[in-house]
Design goal:
The structure is a homodimer. By secondary structure, chain A is of the alpha/beta class. Chain A folds into 3 domains: about 10-80, Arc Repressor Mutant, subunit A, CATH 1.10.10.10; about 85-200 and about 375-390, ATPase, nucleotide binding domain (Nucleotidyltransferase, domain 5, 2-Layer Sandwich), CATH 3.30.420.40; about 210-370, Nucleotidyltransferase, domain 5. Chain A is built from 14 helices and 16 strands. The relative contact order of chain A is 0.12.
Chain lengths: ~400, ~400
């Protein structure tokens, strides 16, 4: 706000990033289209494209089909097969590793189930490094890794990738980023983000939130995470721990929460609340257990119906509060909340009607993730691409591209 | 994000606004200081200052005192006596009108008590227009009004200044901006904002939040309003109705709220909750009534102490949730919440310790407004100055300056 305008060189670097982001998020785009969308003239677009082509980030091709007469505008495509990131998703019940090409294409992907219980950092980092080794062994020689991103269910210090707290993983001050960087041995910094924050970013960039500037993403795992986009940008807060909507108190004095408080949204809506209400706690865990309750309710099981209605009501109360606080355009129910929302949509909607201000809920859409179970993984990939999209040439210089 | 860089002329206009904002918020500033702060060279600063001087927005003077040898750098001052805005604060219990000079100086101010009951728009607009007439009659001939801003306790549609909802004023779809513009007859658009949003802006620009980028401002009147600054910018939401933290449900099934829900923060912490708990509802109203309970508690009145502790506990629960959601650097307790916070700080702090995540409350400061009861009025003035600070020459052209 208080800084002066940028220099010509800053503008050029900014524009290189903007152009690259266009083809990264929008796919192959004609020069003519880029000219229109970026509000720059043709020769500037040509120069920017030439720079990005020389750097090996995009290439230009004739379009496959052209409906118009005359000389067709060249199409700029991201070099998806050559330029990629490593994305990791560390959930309570699963580990996922993927190689994701520029443009968001999943080039390779490995997944393993994870046992609950004490979080063993060396073991997890070792398994992810082993997956990475397998994936890298399968790549061609001229490929370039431009970043590493990790999604984790907890509060993360962005500066160094340390997980400050994660009641559900049972860890605090876990040096996840540094340890993973050491095990990977790729000499590329490892960026770590909160799973729900990354889910929010992914759904806004390439999911149900494309084109929206105000979005709340709720992620159910064991607990409830939140990621909030305010006016197009991820809510971070002073230390980067904002968006913990799962620890909003909805029922003061209610069920105990792993965080130490009582009646948090997570305590009333999380996996344990649902399974206990359904009389199923201690049997099965995770998404399968949640799905089993929702399925049983759908088949007419009265106990399961009551449990789902109860949890759906608390979810609706929490979402109504978030609607009043954020006046979002879209609320996305991800992870296990997808199943719960689909099973209890009537309760959720009814509570929003009762408890949210009419103006705050105008135009509100309730959605499940377009990216499905890979929303957080896709967010980890976007986190890894952030540097190269902010300043492509500088980022390449740093990773030796 | 997806737009290309600005043109030279856009940069110049931006820089004019940045320089004007520096002296508006920071007071008289030397050219040398502006050069450093804006990161521009001396000749650019001279040219920008010359433009703003020619427009009558600033003037340059020799500094009064100089500790250094050599030729002193000229000081740039806002033309506070010449360039001003009209600011109005429409509260439940009072009406305030002020003439506020560039730089934030209150040049003239009128205030009247307001009776509660049906909101009579023609009467309120008439009284504010009469105050304005008195103030304008007392101005010199070469002054220039560059904007009109209004603070109102309700949800406001920014585009046209219509109050969409205000359960506590008992109005909806009230054409406040247009009616006031008509009555003032100044041919200047009237910008209307939510009181707590404006309080947040004012405290961040010139109050306890200077230098902070993440701030939550809570305003107690009859109800509880909220204004949230996220990464330096006011949280608006999709339709501009965001920040209604008073309608976050903290006690599901609890006390009825004028909004139609139950257990909202406002229902548990608002004026009526406190007065009922203290056995004083129906006697006195407003700030004096709240102050009387806090004073009685301080003198050892057991019923008042219990009432204050109860309300303070709910306030603490609500603030703890907001800390988890926003990870703010500062929470400001304005309006009647100032008294309640000062009387129940121990409860509030204790709840935050119990219910907020340690990482989210790191470095958190709880404060009362530096601008006191004029926080919302000061915010209305800032709203009125927004155009001239965004693009000084364009704004002057529009108001005929």
């Amino acid at each position: 706000m208080m800084r002066a305008g940028p220099s010509q060189e800053e503008i050029r670097r900014h524009n290189l990033g903007v152009l690259l982001r266009h083809v990264h998020l929008g796919g192959p785009t004609s020069r003519a289209e880029l000219t229109t969308r970026m509000g720059l003239n043709r020769s500037t677009i040509m120069a920017l494209t030439a720079d990005l082509t020389a750097a090996g980030l995009v290439r230009e091709e004739l379009p496959r089909v052209t409906g118009r007469a005359g000389r067709p505008s060249l199409v700029v495509r991201p070099e998806s097969a050559r330029v990629y990131v490593l994305a990791f998703d560390i959930g309570v019940d699963r580990l996922v590793a993927a190689r994701v090409g520029l443009g968001g294409v999943i080039l390779d992907r490995r997944e393993a189930a994870r046992e609950r219980g004490a979080f063993d950092l060396p073991e997890v980092a070792g398994r992810l490094a082993a997956f990475t080794g397998e994936m890298l062994a399968a790549t061609r020689g001229d490929t370039l890794c431009v970043g590493v991103g990790v999604s984790f269910s907890g509060g993360v210090r962005g500066a160094d990738g340390v997980v400050r707290f994660s009641p559900n993983m049972g860890v605090s001050d876990l040096p996840l980023g540094p340890e993973l960087a050491r095990r990977l041995g790729l000499d590329i910094p490892v960026a770590v983000g909160n799973d729900a924050n990354l889910g929010a970013l992914a759904e806004q960039s390439r999911g149900v939130g494309v084109g929206t500037r105000d979005l709340v993403y709720l992620h159910g795992d064991v607990g409830i995470g939140g990621g909030v986009i305010v006016d197009g940008r991820l809510l971070g807060g002073h230390g980067g721990y904002g968006g913990e909507v799962g620890h909003m108190v909805v029922n003061a004095g209610g069920r105990p929460c792993p965080c130490g408080a009582r009646g948090c949204l997570e305590a009333e809506v999380g996996e344990r609340a649902l399974l206990e209400a359904a009389g199923r706690f201690g049997r099965q865990v995770g998404r399968d257990a949640v799905r089993a309750v929702v399925d049983a309710a759908g088949r007419g099981d009265f106990v399961a119906q009551e449990a789902l209605a109860r949890v759906g009501d608390w979810l609706g109360i929490g979402v109504a509060s978030l609607v009043n606080i954020f006046n979002p355009e879209v609320v996305v129910f991800g992870g296990t909340l997808r199943e719960i929302f689909l099973g209890a949509a009537a309760q959720v909607r009814s509570r929003i009607t009762t408890d949210a201000l009419p103006a705050a809920r105008e135009g509100l859409r309730l959605r499940t993730p377009a990216l499905g179970e890979d929303a957080t993984l896709a967010g980890a990939a976007e986190l890894a691409f952030a540097q190269v999209l902010a300043d492509p040439l500088d980022a390449l210089a740093r990773v030796g591209g």
